[in-house]
Amino acid sequence: MTVYFIGAGPGAADLITVRGARTLAACRVCLYAGSLVPRELLAECPPDARLVDTAQLDLDQITAELLRAHEEGHDVARLHSGDPSVFSAVAEQMRRLDAAGVPYEVVPGVPAFAAAAASLKRELTVPTVGQSVILTRVANRATPMPEGEDLATLGRSGALIVLHLAAKYADRVVEELLPHYGADCPAAVVAYASRPDEIVIRGTLEEIAGKVKEAGVLRTAVIMVGRTLGAEQFRDSHLYSPERERHVC
């Protein structure tokens, strides 16, 4: 058997990849994060599949379910929201499977920041304005941030910053980034990206925290801060430039 860590995407059921949907349809067991993964996706599972909501399970209990399926010879779909490569807690599950000698694969998904950028109708990397994107979060009651990855330090780069799990701490985000980005820097918050109840908030860094509070957004959101969010006057990229030398094969 194989455990498949599948990125379910940011929220809309039809944003799962074709590979993800096909893999899901072939697994006799599905472990899913019930608080985040759209229920419609479970319809892709085989009719007789065992469905396990992991919302209230700890790591030991989740591992036990994976090992049980392994012993029974069933492939497992482990559905995670967004993409497994960022803020998914997949690494610790992989470590447990490695120790137990259980094979696994990863099926990527659409990350929340990509869905948010689509809702904003923005390219996050704009020629001559910004070519770097920092994906991070803020320290709170969860795992502390490593040394040197605090917002005050990361903000010195001036790169576009995308914060996950931080809407509740918007005031703190603004306070730490203001010295580096300036009060007039474009900022945006997208909650429930790609879902019917999606909320999009735009403004400057100085005013974004107030707008987030006014909208009542506390979770399931990404905060974006950076000049590329408002870029209008910029040079066309070299990729499609008529001056670029093109070879015909």
TrEMBL record:
<keyword id="KW-0169">Cobalamin biosynthesis</keyword>
<keyword id="KW-0949">S-adenosyl-L-methionine</keyword>
<dbReference type="InterPro" id="IPR035996">
    <property type="entry name" value="4pyrrol_Methylase_sf"/>
</dbReference>
<dbReference type="InterPro" id="IPR014777">
    <property type="entry name" value="4pyrrole_Mease_sub1"/>
</dbReference>
<dbReference type="Pfam" id="PF00590">
    <property type="entry name" value="TP_methylase"/>
</dbReference>
<protein>
    <submittedName>
        <fullName>Precorrin-4 C(11)-methyltransferase</fullName>
    </submittedName>
</protein>
<feature type="domain" description="Tetrapyrrole methylase">
    <location>
        <begin position="2"/>
        <end position="209"/>
    </location>
</feature>
<dbReference type="InterPro" id="IPR006362">
    <property type="entry name" value="Cbl_synth_CobM/CibF"/>
</dbReference>
<dbReference type="InterPro" id="IPR003043">
    <property type="entry name" value="Uropor_MeTrfase_CS"/>
</dbReference>
<dbReference type="InterPro" id="IPR014776">
    <property type="entry name" value="4pyrrole_Mease_sub2"/>
</dbReference>
<dbReference type="InterPro" id="IPR050161">
    <property type="entry name" value="Siro_Cobalamin_biosynth"/>
</dbReference>
<dbReference type="InterPro" id="IPR000878">
    <property type="entry name" value="4pyrrol_Mease"/>
</dbReference>
<keyword id="KW-0808">Transferase</keyword>
<comment type="similarity">
    <text>Belongs to the precorrin methyltransferase family.</text>
</comment>
<comment type="pathway">
    <text>Cofactor biosynthesis; adenosylcobalamin biosynthesis.</text>
</comment>
<keyword id="KW-0489">Methyltransferase</keyword>
